[in-house]
């Protein structure tokens, strides 16, 4: 399972809309489209920090970083690259 699939699966498990026919696209805005609510944002932060083993900084907590699967994946990849650079220096 690639990173996009992993993030999408987590979001789909936490949808507030219970419709089995919903197919979440990588660019679907999960908050604007009502797929999830604001409480889910905190669950998402916890999921990212726990499953990907890094801590998000205050500047990372802009809701725009969490609005789509693609943006969440970009945030994770950026943080992982930063952690790798920090370890190698």
TrEMBL record:
Superkingdom in the source lineage: Bacteria
Gene3D superfamilies assigned: ACP-like
Carrier domain segment(s): 1-80
Protein's recorded name: Acyl carrier protein
UniProt source species: Bacillus pumilus (Bacillus mesentericus)
């Amino acid at each position: 399972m690639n990173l996009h699939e992993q993030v999408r699966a987590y979001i789909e498990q936490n949808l507030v809309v219970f419709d089995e026919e919903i197919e979440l696209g990588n660019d679907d805005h999960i908050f604007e489209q009502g797929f999830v609510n604001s409480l889910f944002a905190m669950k998402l932060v916890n999921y990212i920090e726990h499953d990907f083993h890094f801590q998000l900084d205050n500047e990372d907590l802009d809701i725009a970083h969490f609005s789509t699967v693609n943006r969440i994946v970009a945030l994770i990849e950026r943080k992982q690259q930063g952690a790798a650079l920090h370890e190698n220096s």
